[in-house]
Task: structure prediction
Amino acid sequence: MDQANNLRNLINQVEKGESVIDLSSRVITVTSGKGGVGKTNFSLNLAIQFSKLNKKVIIIDADFGLANIEVLFGIIPRYSLADVLKGKRDIEEVLTDGPMGIRFISGGSGLRELSNITERQMNYFINNFSYLDAISDIIIIDTGAGISKSVINFIKASGETIIVTTPEPTSVTDAYALIKTIKEESVKMPDFKIVVNRVDDDEEGLEIFNKINRAATRFLGVSLENLGYIPYDKYLVKAVKNQQPASLCFPNCEFTKSIELVCKRLMNIKVSDKQRESGVRGFVKRLANMFSN
Ligand SMILES: Nc1ncnc2c1ncn2[C@@H]1O[C@H](COP(=O)(O)OP(=O)(O)OP(=O)(O)O)[C@@H](O)[C@H]1O
Ligand SMILES: [Mg+2]
Result:
């Protein structure tokens, strides 16, 4: 049976609600208040660590306009999610192969156009997108920075959100501002995890986490989860220049080791059924609802 047939069959089964396989992927959104804090490098290397643990990972590059993931992988995808939205391609065709069996999807302008499509297009899109549940364990969404409508929608629709910050005061206050905005807009508060990147040492990382967590607990009534700290590492800078993921070209550098730890913590966190809420299908349905409101 060819791939297209395979996909069609799976989509039919998903549509009928027949659960052939474990259909719930873990959808993790990676975001930040301030830009340039290390989200894309974190997402990519986290994906590699998951894949080393035999997890099937798909990265969605949702940073519209800025093609982050593909630049770091040094691979140019042929199509983007916008092509699925327009009904020109199916989801298999927009999946690009990266290293270690990781696959990625370029968002293009796709997800922002969700609000302007017909019901038929929307169904095609949701059913195609849902196929990702069947072929992956974990979906990592690398968003742009800041409190834009689309970033807020991604956070609200996904089960888990990781906020990346650095110790810089502007990055810390912007991370807090992002949590505050989500809190004000949400009926049900999503679960937030914090990673402090570019630290001098663990002490500094803990201090920054405590600062954000104290403010969020005291003023917003939200407690955050500490996922760990990533040191400033010149090997990461080298890897970026070579367009190679640091986890592959420098598997023993400090950066890689700290991402490995974050990955292990994430693996040990029990994901509740509520967080999964029907995996990527649930995610894309919630997203579609938000964009159409
Ligand atoms: N731990 C680190 N050690 C050294 N340099 C780092 C580290 N993390 C990030 N950087 C530097 O910061 C740059 C920006 O990282 P990255 O592109 O991952 O940020 P981003 O948050 O995705 O940015 P944007 O908001 O523009 O999408 C990297 O190219 C690298 O030079
Ligand atoms: Mg980025």
